[in-house]
Amino acid sequence: MQLDELFDLWGKDSQVDRTEIGIESSKIPQLHHKYYKLFSVERLKLRKYEQDYKTLYKDKWEYYQGNTPDEDLKEKGWEPNPIRILKQDLDKYIDSDPDIIKHNLRLAAQKEKVDFLDSVLRMISNRSFQLKGVIDWEKFKVGI
């Protein structure tokens, strides 16, 4: 699921019908279930992307060291590295590698989704307090 889709979904689910506070209160467990399920799925994807990054980083390290066998290069669709890179410069080459950059951007997007869903879950956990605030405000308005 894309981040924009999550924003839209929460935009709809976050609406509170102030005339039906009891119904809104009864929706809290359902909302928690829905968003915790999304959170778990997205967090597992994040963990997988983090592990994939470690493997890719090691492969790129070997590539820039010139230690990758030709059959592995062919399998990955990489051209042989024509230059010998000093160990102290390896990080510069690896960090600027297009595959690493692409993976880092995917990791960042996944972290955003997980962080967003975490904040939604915290909001849902506090929803009963927010609904109580609405009830107290309505009581205050009518003088109770």
Compose a concise summary of this entry.
The protein is mainly alpha-helical.
Can you give the helix content as a percent range? over 70%
Strand segment tally: 0
Largest sheet: none
Q: Structural class given helices, strands, pairing?
A: mainly alpha
Mean pLDDT: 93
Low-confidence spans: pLDDT under 50, at least 5 residues? none
Number of helices: 7
What is the general shape?
Answer: rod-shaped
SSE pattern, N- to C-terminal = HHHHHHH
Gap from first CA to last CA: 46 Å
How much of the residues is beta strand, in percent? under 5%
Rg, nearest Å: 24 Å
Topology:
Elements: H1 3-13, H2 21-26, H3 28-65, H4 70-76, H5 90-95, H6 98-125, H7 127-142
Structure description:
The chain has 144 residues and is mainly α. It has a domain at 42-132. 78% of the residues lie in helices and 0% in strands. The chain has helices at residues 3-13, 21-26, 28-65, 70-76, 90-95, 98-125, 127-142. Helix 3 runs antiparallel to helix 6 (98-125). The protein is rod-shaped. The two termini are 46 Å apart. 7% of the residues are buried. The mean pLDDT is 93.
